[in-house]
Amino acid sequence: MTPSSTLLRQLFPSWEFFDVTGLPPILQIRLLPSRDPAAGWRNVVRPPRRRWWHVLFNPKGTETLAVQTLVERCYTELVELGEQAPAYRESLVLVRAVAERAIADDAVAAWAGCTGWQLRIIVTDEDDGLMQVVYESDRWALPQRRETV
User: Is 148 part of a structural domain of the chain?
Assistant: First the structure.
């Protein structure tokens, strides 16, 4: 290979790399009122608003990307390794911590009458658009409220 052909290969990537794209898994949470087990689900990872300066400095976008990567890794380990694999269990602990933080950041009014919460990971089939729940947690007690200073 000549240096010019190496440079051309770096500038024009192999299109095979892009063949395996799909819709990412989605992490959702819901608060569970004591009497109503059918509360609505909401997405944890939501893209932040973008401004022109975010091309240079975008900590919120970087955090969103990191959280989505955690969810994708958890899903991949569940599918490839199974529920009993230590790597999957560790990923699930991290995903749960992200979900707990999202709940703790909610307004106090959202907690009224709620005694628990759940998380789930869903994927959407690209062919027919149907959502499939790949993981749904048991009911967990609400995390402690963080005091704001």
Answer: no
- Residues in CB range of 34: below 8 A, 6 or more apart: 113, 114, 115
Tell me how far apart the alpha carbons of residues 41 and 120 are, in angstroms, rounded to a whole number: 9
Instruction: With beta carbons less than 8 A apart as the criterion, state whether 120 and 131 touch.
Output: no
50/90: higher pLDDT: 90
Domain that holds residue 98: 21-141
Interval 118-126 mean pLDDT: 89
Where do the DSSP E strands lie in the chain?
Answer: 26-33, 42-43, 114-124, 131-136, 140-141
pTM: 0.76
What sign does the dihedral 54-60-64-66 (CA atoms) show? Answer: positive
Half-sphere exposure of 98 (CA within 13 A, CB side): 27
HEC states along 34-46? CCCCCCCCEECCC
For residue 13, is it within any domain?
A: no
Give how many domains the chain has, as a whole number.
1
Task: Specify if 14 maps to a domain.
Answer: no
Long-range Cβ contacts of 87-92 (<8 Å, 24+ apart): 92/135
Q: Which residues does residue 119 pair with via DSSP β-bridges, in sequence order?
A: 29
Distances (CA, A) of 113 to 69, 124, 132: 33, 32, 29
